[in-house]
Amino acid sequence: MQTDILVIGSSAAGLVAATTGKRIYPTKEFMVVTSQDKTLIPCGIPYIFGSVGSSDKDLLPAEKMFDSLGIKVVYDVVVKIDRDNKLVNLKSGKEVKYEKLVIGTGSVPVIPSWLKGTALENVFSVPKNKVYLDKMQQKLANAKKIVTIGAGFIGVEISDELVKAGKEVTIVEKLPHVLELAFDVDISLKAEKILSDRGVKILTNIGVTEILGESKVEGVVLENGEKIEADAVILAIGYKPNTQLAQDCGLKVNDFGSIKVDEYMRTDDSNVFAVGDCAEKRDFVTRKVCNIMLASTACAEARIAGMNLMKLSAIKTFSGTISIFSTALGSNAFGVAGLTERIAKAENFNYVTGVFEGIDRHPGTLNDTHAQSVKLIAARESGVIIGGEVFGGLSVGELTNTIGIMIQNRMTINSMLTLQIGTHPLLTASPAGYPLMKAAEDASSKIVFCS
CA 94 to CA 406: how far, in whole Å? Predict the structure, then answer.
């Protein structure tokens, strides 16, 4: 087989790289090789276990999108990349010759080698694999007591869904607070209270040393020797780049194991691009290499790669990862974009914060009104916004995206104070008490009066 552009992977990164590339270069032949005949929406995976109810209701319409654009799909596994001859070997024994290659192999769950008992029945990780997750869902249906190891986004969201489904769930987290790698402590504390109120038991500042059982999970042992009974254990410790294929063909990787890329998403081989969780990231503000894995970031990278496959366009470069996260626990939502105050302090930024707590509707007597708080972080001398955190109702997601846009466009606190916005009683906070603007006012006063 032969194609102009070969894309490995059909999840968010591979899907967007292929469809963008075909739009920009319609005369070129595109082929996608994927092991998944049905592609999951990655961020929707936790909700399979509760709100959505089934992996069949969490599918990307990848096949339809490929078909509508004339992109050929091959269901197989790439086992080797031969860069010298510009071809890949498939598990079926077939070969595909390419002109340009896009690697979108994603990430895989971290399974700690030091933790005894991970091979027991009913110990689960959370891969982006429909077959695995369907079996996991079937087995969890018969489990009553579940321990989740790790309180990042996946651990928190799955635990919340399982509690809603009537399970007894305990989260064990080594760090002092849940979601601590993404948020400052004040937001983490809100999340902990909401989780506890919804029935999740939370143990922080402690780790698991062993998973107990003969052939099937019976419980876990904590670092203090305490034992917790469990019918199932979910490993939500994190993910690592799936880059063995790239490493085997000699592509350079960084200390995180991510494939090194330039701002056009090219590897050290100009004919090979890498996008998504497997590709190197740099923080938008600090410019340091980071290990952020987000579908939204993957799609941005994929668009850059797709646009630059055959020729480079200087205005289409990728300037770094802003790290825009959001999640929800019931009707309460949390969002963060850019640097948290903790990271700004650790990086020795001279910064100010602006904080305001208000409501997301006006008047506050409307039935669906929710408290809404905003924290903005800005460089003290320039006033450039470098981060922000939001807590409130389900509108938080779009408000977090707005902060991300402000960071990417290097807006200042002063420019925010003259920003023109639209408001409506049923849709937004009052124009006189808009939390985003009020937080900017608070930050502005500190820039003016602090030395």
Answer: 48
Spatial separation of the C-alpha atoms in residues 285 and 347, rounded to whole Å: 10
Mean pLDDT of the 11-36 span: 96
Between strands 371-379 and 385-392, the pairing is antiparallel
CATH class of this structure's domain 326-449: alpha beta
- Amino acid identity of residue 203, one-letter, is L
Instruction: Look up residue 89 and give its two tokens.
Output: 């070997």
40 pLDDT higher than 80: yes
Q: How far apart are CA 311 and CA 375, in angstroms?
A: 41
- Helix (H), strand (E) at residue 444: helix 435-449
Contact 191, 334 (CB under 8 A): yes
Q: How far apart are CA 30 and CA 53, in angstroms?
A: 34
Which CATH homologous superfamily contains domain 123-237?
FAD/NAD(P)-binding domain (3.50.50.60)
Q: What tens digit of pLDDT does each residue of 190-224 get?
A: 999 999 999 999 999 999 999 999 999 999 999 99
Q: How confident is the model at residue 450, as a pLDDT?
A: 44
Q: Tell me the CB-side half-sphere exposure of residue 350, using CA atoms within 13 A.
A: 8
Tell me the CA distances in angstroms from 110 to 3, 107, 118, 208, 451, one per residue in order. Answer: 34, 9, 11, 15, 45
The pLDDT of residue 368 is 87
Domain ranges for the chain, please list them.
5-108+240-316, 123-237, 326-449
Give the containing element (helix H, strand E) for 406. Answer: helix 396-408
Residues of the chain by 3-state class (helix, strand, coil), percent to 5: 30, 30, 45
CATH of segment(s) 5-108+240-316: 3.50.50.60
Q: Over 60: is that where the pLDDT of 314 sits?
A: no
- Binned at pLDDT 50, 70 and 90, residue 249 comes out as very high
pLDDT > 80? residue 451: no
Query: Per residue in 235-244, pLDDT tens?
Result: 999 999 999 9
For residue 358, what is the enclosing H or E element?
A: strand 351-359
Question: In the predicted model, what is the mean pLDDT of residues 26-31?
Answer: 97
**How buried is 317 (Cβ within 10 angstroms: 0-12 exposed, 13-18 middle, 19+ buried)?**
middle
Q: Distance between CA atoms of 214 and 385, rounded to whole angstroms?
A: 54
